[in-house]
Amino acid sequence: MNKNEDARYLPERLNREPTVIRGLTNNELLLVIGSGVVVGLVLGVLIVVLLLPGQLPAIPTSMALCGYLALRFGSDRLAAAKRNKPGAWFYRMLEWRLHHGSVSRLFFRKASLIDQDATWWLRRERVQRRLRRKRQDRLD
User: Fold this and answer.
1) What's the pLDDT at 3?
2) Which of 33, 36, 106, 136 fits as disulfide partner to 66, beta carbons 3.0 to 4.6 Å?
3) CB 20 within 8 A of CB 26
4) Alpha carbon 38 to chain centroid, angstroms
């Protein structure tokens, strides 16, 4: 390629977030581990209150264990769900589920996600027909 010649293509993967661990990006990794840690916190508090009163180290232990388990098993499921889909699919799916879920109806009164199902028509057919006729007239 000459130095004056431009690149003929721009790979789509240049704009993607890099994969960090087990097929997840940074944001997805934090979401998976964070959700595991929150579940571990709830389980740890329940264990301390119901089964082991006075054993406070059970809380961080269950948080670490659930975070690890979420990374180990949740990342495989999320990576499999993301396979062969566009890069922003995961974030749009989360947005869609938050918008249409029962939790959003309780906490959010105003819809922030545009939800429209319509067929788009550009009305270019007439213009293209005219251009074809003009080309045909020039050739004749």
Assistant:
1) 58
2) 36
3) yes
4) 20
| Residue bearing tokens 């087990």 | 22
Q: Mark residue 36 as left, alpha or beta (left: phi above 0; alpha: psi -120 to 50; beta: remaining).
A: alpha
Residue located via tokens 């979401």: 31
Distance, CA of 42 to CA of 54 (rounded, Å): 16
Contact 31, 25 (CB under 8 A): no
Chain Cα centroid distance, residue 78: 10
Q: Is 45 helix (H, G, I), strand (E, B) or coil?
A: helix
Q: What residue type is 6 in one-letter code?
A: D
The closest alpha carbon to 62, from 49, 81, 75, 79, belongs to 49
> Which pLDDT score, from 0 to 100, does residue 81 have?
85
Q: How far apart are CA 115 and CA 96, in angstroms?
A: 9
Contact (CB, 8 A) for 76 and 22:
yes
Please give the span between the terminal C-alpha atoms of the chain, in angstroms, as a whole number.
41
Per-run averaged pLDDT (10 residues), the chain, 140 residues: 59 69 84 94 93 89 94 88 81 78 62 65 63 74
3 state SS for 6-30: CCCCCCHHHHCCCCCECCECHHHHH
